[in-house]
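Request: Show me your protein:
***
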Amino acid sequence: MDYIVDWNKITLANNFVFCRVMEAEPELCRKLVELLLGFEVKKIKIVKSEYALKAGLLDKGIRMDVYCKADDRVIDLEMQTVVKSDLAKRTRYYQSLIDMDLLTKGKPYSSLKESYIVFLCLSDPLKQNLPVYFFENACREMPEVKLNDGAYKVFFNAEKCAIMGNEKLKAFFEFLRGQEPCDTFTDKLNRIVEKLKTDAMFRGQYMTWEQSIHEEAEYRAEKMAKKMAQNMAKDMQHAKALEAARTLLSMHLGTHEQIAQAQGLTVAEVQQLAAEQFVS
């Protein structure tokens, strides 16, 4: 991978850059949250990039891009350059772990804060040509009746930023897509990104992060390939055992139980083979 070329083209849409900018500039993060969600935020209490959560040792963990506590709300900002098919289920799991993190032992459910999982997508996540998809739990029979559980999922579609209505929101997503900054907010973001790109230490951190991402992807690919090979070998072995059992059945060599034990099959499988031979 040519890091120099990638580095010259890097923008705020890069996960690593987005996380570091938001963490280093909480005031900009506060303004971004206000811009995205439309409510006033007096103070960002905590801003953490790549915040990890896990329910238990054997449970799947998550790593949120930017996790912040804004006044009495918690907000997860996710930069999504490539939209994946499991995005909806991902938000469901994220929400559950955020709630577990918020609700310590002994606290009532009423103490759960409002939580927002916000995805900044460069392409349309739901293919309905909307600029924004805002979800909250509502009654199917009477959609106007809201559950009011304080759990919200929001997906922004940068492809449709031209019809977002809010000019500042439009300017931000145009900038995210690689266009030149055109207002005070995007200009400040741009200057911070450009300054970071001249920082040798930051560049080293980025390269280390990028390498770890590739190594993790390679590890997962190798693990998947190994699992597939094992499954194929297991399937082939099972097929051979079935064929051997058919032969033994046709020669009337042994009971169903004996054949099953000899070939590592279940009695039910041998009985099924015997039934098939009888029909044929």
The two ends are 59 Å apart (CA to CA). DSSP finds nine helices and six strands in the chain. Residues 1-5 have pLDDT under 50 and may be disordered. The first strand starts at residue 44 and ends at 53.
